[in-house]
Amino acid sequence: MAETTTRETAIEEPRGELTVRTLAMPSDTNANGDIFGGWVLSQMDQAGGIAGVERARGRVVTIAVDAMTFIRPVKVGDVLCVYTEVEHVGRTSMKIHIEAWARRFMTNQREKVTVATFTFVAIDDEGRPRPIPAG
């Protein structure tokens, strides 16, 4: 007897916790009229920093951005929503998965626009690496 399978379309959902939400403005555009990729990167770095400070219970600095992928453009009027999830915690550093989603102007349709993994290091008051507290 042949097995029958039903293929369902899975709707992708953001991974992690909503950490930053901001409006894309005309001053943030590149020469093509799309939102400048550096602006999106900046919003992701801010969100990662917030998540890192919460997890490390203190100051953190960005030391690396791995595998950043721009999937779709962000347009003026879109609301950029940045989600974070701590993936790995080492002695002084942590990797944070960061996704940026655009809630499209007027339609409210949500689309993933960028994804990356950022690495942060916890630092003390003198800027030296410090251990990240457990859990």
Topology at a glance:
Layout: E1 17-23, H1 37-56, E2 60-70, E3 79-89, E4 93-103, E5 110-122
Antiparallel strand pairs: 1-3, 2-5, 3-4, 4-5
What does this protein structure show overall?
With 135 residues, the protein is mainly β. It has one helix at residues 37-56, and strands at 17-23, 60-70, 79-89, 93-103, 110-122. The chain has a 5-stranded antiparallel beta sheet with strand order 1-3-4-5-2, with helices on one face.
Summary?
This protein has 1 helix and 5 strands. By secondary structure, it is mainly beta. 15% of the residues lie in helices and 39% in strands.
Low-confidence parts lasting 5 or more residues at pLDDT below 50? Answer: 1-7
Largest beta-sheet characterization: 5 strands, antiparallel
Radius of gyration: 18 Å
Task: Tell me how many strands there are.
Answer: 5
How far the N terminus sits from the C terminus, by CA atoms, comes to 51 Å
Structural class computed from helices and strand pairing: mainly beta
Q: Indicate the mean pLDDT.
A: 93
Percent helix, as a range, is: 10-25%
Number of helices: 1
Q: Strand share of the residues?
A: 35-45%
Q: What is the succession of H and E elements?
A: EHEEEE
Global geometry: elongated
The main sheet orders its strands as: 1-3-4-5-2
> How would you name the oligomeric state of the polypeptide chains in this document?
single chain
